[in-house]
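Box 4.2: Ligand-aware structure prediction
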Amino acid sequence: MAESSGNPVYEKVERCVAAVQARLGEATMPKIALVLGSGLGPMAEQMDVTCAVPYTDIGDFPVSTAPGHAGRYLFGSLAGTPLVMMQGRVHYYEGYAMSDVVLPVRVLARLGIGTLVLTNAAGGLNPDFTPGDLMLITDQITSFVPSPLIGANIDEYGLRFPDQTQVYDQGLQDTLMAAARSCNTPLRQGVYMQLTGPQFETPAEIGMYRSLGADAVGMSTAVEAVTARHMGLRVAGVSCITNLGAGMPGQARLDSSEVDEMGKRVSAQFGALLCVAIQQMVAPSNWNVPTPQEG
Ligand code: HPA
């Protein structure tokens, strides 16, 4: 019996894994997963889907209530590359426990993916950024949200005190930068900061976050990256800068429809970049060997 038997978080993850496995049957599990952020759901239309699993079909799975988040796993391929997409994610501001927010990522890790590519919509804080820019996430700040690893450690999944020196895999970052060059798509780089939301930030907060080193702010992603690293996955992240931070020069009052519209507007370009990058990530010269953390 697993050491963590009796731990409700562990048991819930394992139940969800069994439910998804039952739906997948004998199908081979892809080695790479892509999480689609706000407004980027349409990217799923480019996928050749062999099995769709709505979160509502997975027993006690959290169900996304956020607009623009369909809430399902899509198994299949993207331009010939086997892939699983998370079309829609769960946010902490929806009222779920943090262990539920990261449950879909834990399930993917347990199903056997080795690489996780996270995307999101974010507000730009770096004055060089313009709405519509894409930003490669090089590092993150999670200090303003509860850790998804709080509670009894699940030793089967990872270490109690995981290192965070390099959350975003350097090889995957290099692959994304190279893919951006080959697609002629400018790709900015910067530090992503996760906040709880759901309210947008005040201008005073934006000023503080800029001084703390954030280039972009959003309401997702960083806790998923922590969880994925805990379980030994290689992680990459790209933000779509849908607007500038509240109160920044040129930024009018914020409205979530602006976020969704900009997400949709760059979705084709973003999708093309990810398509090329993902093909490279699974190429034999770049095999995604999981990198478990050492004790
Ligand atoms: N703040 C927080 N989250 C966001 C923003 C923002 O300005 N834009 C898109 N997601």
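In the box above, the bound molecule is hypoxanthine. The first strand starts at residue 32 and ends at 36.
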